[in-house]
């Protein structure tokens, strides 16, 4: 008798289209199994042979959080390369490492949450390091390249499935789960959506992750834009993964819904497909979905739609076709090619901001290297663990020889004296062995961080000299002579037990708080006598106990008062090593875990005062001073007294070697600034002002003089531009020019094409990037560059029409080396649509479609969709709508406003007197309970309409009759 072989179910048949296979699999899943798939950690379905699946694997600039991996430059550094081919290759390398790591560790996920395409609108944003640029087109180009690399080039199966972060208009950490970004329609379409749209339309994106914040009063996790915009851009099934904990925020912190069942249902209906909440525990999300189904807030079809989108990603990743998936069981990890690529990326990310001729350095130059980051290779929150490490000091030793390089970190060396007259003492580390330190002698952070079996600090008559590093705003780290940072573990004791500051809550930062003398005076200087040593991770002061030094308990009343005795100041150390040098290289910048990171915005553009003092000491000792800024964001500095200034983001494992090669001239720098560097804090708008047009933000609208402009970057070579030609045909502007290397060494140039509307009817960018090209040219070589720009790139979002419109008229085309270094220009006249008045008598006005505003913000019209406008904090606000057509003669005889809340709306024309006042007689029951209020208004012809809003009301619509 022949054994019967069960037929292969259609979802296992690789010859069928994915859509049919998903239909079949959905039909086989039980309702309970489908609901279980909605959590980030979807369980296995053993009866169908389906494995467990997890959405989410961080891979911003290398595989993160899963141990050793190749670490590439931070995202803002990749943006500074302006090199889409390079970034695509980085994405390809990262995805290969994901696959290789997945083959040996099933915890590594193939659904990667990367890249971050939030625009770098404001340089004080704590997560500046995660974005690519302040410009939407450059961001989209770099992000698209990275996603293409992550996806791979197989036509059917993806190497990894990238999810874009963070949808939408997210640029603040302060109150990020409760603040609302007020985004007018033009900013929404021309700025924030544009970066996402280009990536999605390029076809290499698996989905998006909504951001924590609200936009126009509505949480991103219930945003109608997921349906109205995102999913309208492509026919592909896009997966929407919530950010961690955000589903619960809808109730717990935002109070947008009364129950978690309502919130979960609203998010699912809006388009969220995977809920990242409560870690690996899926029970609460499952219970909320089941509760929403029982209450009729959801249908089984809603669940099916979300599960379908998840399965679409899993099929594309080859999960159900392991024998056909070209990526299954393969990968490349820490290969020579990946190491070389990390070095290439680090070199291309370096931006030369200023140079008076001191660079490049001759081979026989005697160099003094100073600064807090001179012998550091910093990691950030989304870094992998370093397999290889290169600091600027190590790179200079290697390139110039240790005998030509002197080093001083420039930190204050201190003793901390207790009230009993003893000193804090770091016990000898039992870890200082070859086994723990590893082959290269470096402390192993995996073996040191957070350990409680190390002996805590004690006190004795001599103590231990500590390196006190001041990172600004009074935030300090303390380090033992062998390099271990003082840290506090869960048991509350101080130990020298961390290789670097880090973690979600940093346990290696402290503050010295001055204490009053007997006469009541306080010592405000950071190193004066009488301070509490406050541990910032716990918020508690340090005390000395019989069994060691620890943080005080919640009820302890007598924390230790310490005296800070400076053994050697940082400035003295700098002076000691710089006087005899030919040139001084000061390496300054930030620690990515301190004073500016996820959950914490910066407060100033200034360098920390301690680093400014070190820089001043170096300049005083040697006029030939080079500042190398290694940072996740821009600074406001004074470049004039400096011989040269370079900037690079934290460059990953090859950062130090790359910097040394650029300083030596082995590589000509060609990085370009991906965002404006402002000269002063006063140039910045409020961090929460998202109206880039009204607040004149970014290079697009900024009317001041920047410290360094968008696109800026110098070279050791020189380049000429010639032969600008423009041809407009078939809906495209074809722009070409010739770039020639007129220098004496091979170098890269980044040619940038901008446009400017010469005589626009509305506020348009002062100049706007259309395209760019990074090219390598030998001395004397030329390259003809061509840019094909669709005429749609010259359009703007016309709020009067509610759509994109190309305006007829002249447009400048500008080609050069930065947004201000323009070498060639011409003007073309484009045929588009003429401007027309708003037909307000026929269509009325949506309140948010204003041309100008002051004192107002956009709010949610309902919890589901629509916008309204409200005065900030219930005060007064003004709205201007230009060129409103009220009809011929006395065409309009009445006005109606749709409002909620309480207050008045005052209407005037052309800046004249108030013609109508509409008052809400009694406050409406809730913010979404709208009423209509009428008034007489006699008007005809075309006028500018001005509305004054008074009081806590929401204005949704204005209508006219007659």
Quick recap of the structure?
This protein is of the alpha+beta class and 962 residues long.
Descriptive tags:
20 helices, beta-glucosidase activity, 6-stranded mixed beta sheet, Exo-alpha-(1->6)-L-arabinopyranosidase, 8-stranded antiparallel beta sheet, hydrolase, Ig-like_fold, Trefoil (Acidic Fibroblast Growth Factor, subunit A), TIM Barrel, Rossmann fold, alpha-L-arabinofuranosidase activity, 962 residues, globular, 5 domains, alpha+beta, 49 strands, 21% helix
Task: Provide structural commentary.
There is one protein chain. The protein has 962 residues and is of the alpha+beta class. The chain has 5 domains: 30-316, TIM Barrel (Alpha-Beta Barrel), CATH 3.20.20; 349-410 and 571-683, Rossmann fold; 412-568, Trefoil (Acidic Fibroblast Growth Factor, subunit A) (Trefoil); 704-830, Immunoglobulins (Immunoglobulin-like); 840-961, Jelly Rolls (Sandwich). 21% of the residues lie in helices and 29% in strands. The strands form 13 sheets. Strands 15, 18, 19, 22, 23, 24, 25 and 26 form an 8-stranded antiparallel sheet that branches. A hairpin with a 6-residue loop joins β41 and β42. α4 packs parallel to α5. The protein is globular. One of its GO terms (molecular function) is alpha-L-arabinofuranosidase activity. Keywords: Hydrolase, Signal. Residues 843-961 form the CBM6 domain. It holds the Pfam family Glyco_hydro_3. Belongs to the glycosyl hydrolase 3 family.
């Amino acid at each position: 008798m022949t054994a019967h072989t069960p037929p292969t179910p259609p979802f296992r048949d690789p010859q069928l289209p994915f859509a049919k296979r998903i239909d079949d699999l959905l039909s086989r899943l039980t309702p309970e199994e489908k609901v279980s798939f909605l959590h980030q950690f979807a369980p296995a379905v053993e009866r169908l042979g389906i494995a467990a699946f997890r959405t989410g694997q961080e891979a911003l600039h290398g595989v993160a959080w899963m141990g050793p991996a190749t670490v590439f430059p931070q995202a803002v550094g990749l943006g500074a390369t302006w090199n889409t081919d390079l970034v695509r290759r980085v994405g390809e390398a990262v995805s290969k490492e994901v696959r290789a790591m997945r083959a040996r560790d099933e915890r590594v996920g193939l659904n990667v949450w990367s890249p971050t395409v939030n625009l770098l609108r404001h340089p004080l944003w704590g997560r500046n390091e995660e974005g690519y640029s302040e410009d939407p087109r450059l961001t989209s180009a770099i992000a698209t390249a990275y996603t293409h690399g992550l996806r791979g080039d197989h036509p059917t199966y993806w190497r990894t499935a990238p999810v874009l972060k963070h949808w939408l208009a997210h640029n603040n950490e302060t109150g990020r789960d409760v603040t609302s970004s007020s985004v007018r329609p033009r900013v929404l379409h021309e700025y924030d959506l544009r970066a996402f749209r280009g990536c999605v339309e390029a076809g290499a994106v698996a989905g998006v992750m909504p951001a924590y914040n609200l936009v126009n009063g509505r949480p991103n996790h219930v945003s109608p834009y997921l349906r109205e915009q995102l999913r309208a851009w492509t026919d592909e099934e896009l997966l929407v993964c919530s950010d961690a904990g955000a589903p619960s925020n809808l109730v717990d912190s935002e109070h947008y819904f009364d129950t978690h069942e309502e919130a979960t249902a609203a998010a699912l209906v809006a388009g969220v497909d995977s809920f990242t909440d409560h870690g690996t525990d899926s029970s609460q999300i499952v219970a909320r979905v089941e509760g929403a189904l029982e209450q009729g807030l959801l249908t089984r079809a809603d669940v099916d739609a979300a599960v379908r989108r998840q399965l679409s990603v899993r099929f594309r990743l080859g999960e159900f076709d392991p024998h056909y998936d070209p990526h299954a069981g393969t990968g490349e990890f820490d290969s020579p090619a990946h190491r070389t690529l990390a070095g290439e990326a680090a070199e291309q990310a370096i931006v030369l901001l200023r140079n008076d001729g001191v660079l490049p350095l001759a081979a026989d130059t005697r160099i003094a290297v100073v600064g807090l980051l001179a012998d550091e290779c910093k990691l950030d929150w989304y870094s992998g663990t370093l397999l290889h490490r290169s600091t600027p000091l190590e790179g200079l030793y290697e390139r110039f020889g240790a005998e030509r390089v002197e080093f001083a970190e420039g930190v204050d060396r201190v003793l901390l004296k207790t009230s009993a007259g003893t000193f804090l003492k770091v016990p000898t580390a039992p870890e200082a062995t070859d086994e723990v330190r590893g082959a290269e002698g470096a402390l192993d952070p995996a073996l040191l961080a957070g350990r409680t079996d190390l002996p805590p600090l004690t006190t004795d008559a001599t103590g231990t000299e500590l390196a006190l590093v001041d990172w600004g705003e009074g935030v300090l780290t303390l380090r033992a002579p062998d390099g271990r940072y003082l840290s506090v573990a869960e048991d509350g004791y101080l130990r020298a037990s961390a290789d670097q500051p880090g973690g979600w809550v940093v346990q290696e930062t402290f503050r010295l708080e001055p204490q009053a003398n007997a006469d009541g005076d306080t010592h405000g200087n950071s190193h004066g006598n009488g301070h509490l040593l406050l541990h910032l991770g716990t918020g508690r002061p340090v005390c000395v106990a019989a069994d060691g030094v620890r943080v005080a308990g919640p009820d302890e009343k007598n924390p230790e008062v310490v005296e800070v005795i400076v053994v050697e100041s940082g400035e003295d150390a700098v002076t000691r090593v710089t006087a005899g040098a030919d040139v001084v290289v000061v390496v300054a910048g930030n620690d990515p875990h301190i004073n500016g990171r996820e959950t914490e915005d910066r407060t100033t553009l200034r360098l920390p005062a301690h680093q400014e003092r070190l820089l001043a000491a170096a300049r005083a000792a040697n006029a030939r001073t080079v500042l190398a800024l290694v940072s996740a964001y821009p600074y406001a500095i004074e470049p004039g007294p400096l011989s040269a200034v370079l900037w690079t983001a934290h460059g990953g494992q090859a950062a130090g070697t790359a910097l040394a090669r650029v300083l030596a001239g082995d590589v000509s720098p060609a990085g370009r600034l991906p965002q404006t560097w402002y000269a002063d804090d006063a140039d910045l708008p409020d961090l929460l002002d998202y109206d880039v047009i009204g607040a004149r933000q970014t290079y697009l609208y900024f009317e001041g003089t920047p410290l360094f402009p968008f696109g800026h970057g110098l070279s050791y070579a020189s380049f000429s531009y010639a032969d600008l030609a423009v041809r407009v045909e078939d809906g495209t502007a074809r722009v070409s020019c010739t770039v020639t290397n007129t220098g004496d060494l091979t170098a890269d140039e980044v040619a940038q094409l901008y446009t400017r509307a010469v005589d626009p009817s509305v506020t348009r960018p002062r100049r706007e990037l259309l395209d760019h090209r990074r090219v390598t040219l030998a001395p004397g070589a030329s390259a003809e560059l061509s840019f094909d720009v669709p005429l749609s790139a010259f359009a703007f979002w016309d709020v009067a029409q509610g759509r994109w419109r190309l305006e007829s008229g002249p447009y400048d085309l500008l080609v050069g080396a930065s947004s201000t270094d323009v070498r060639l220009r011409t003007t073309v006249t484009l045929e588009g649509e003429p401007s027309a008045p708003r037909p307000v008598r026929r269509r009325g006005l949506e309140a948010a479609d204003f041309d100008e505003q002051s004192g107002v913000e956009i709010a949610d019209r309902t919890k589901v969709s629509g916008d309204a406008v409200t005065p900030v904090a219930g005060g007064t606000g003004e709205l201007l709508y230009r060129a409103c057509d009220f009809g011929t003669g006395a065409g309009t005889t009445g006005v109606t406003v749709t409002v909620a809340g309480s207050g008045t709306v005052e209407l005037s024309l052309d800046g004249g007197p108030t013609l109508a006042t509409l008052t809400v007689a009694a406050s409406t029951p809730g913010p979404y309970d709208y009423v209509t209020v009428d008034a007489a208004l006699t008007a005809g012809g075309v006028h500018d309409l001005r509305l004054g809003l008074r009081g806590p009301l929401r204005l949704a619509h204005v209508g006219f009759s007659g």
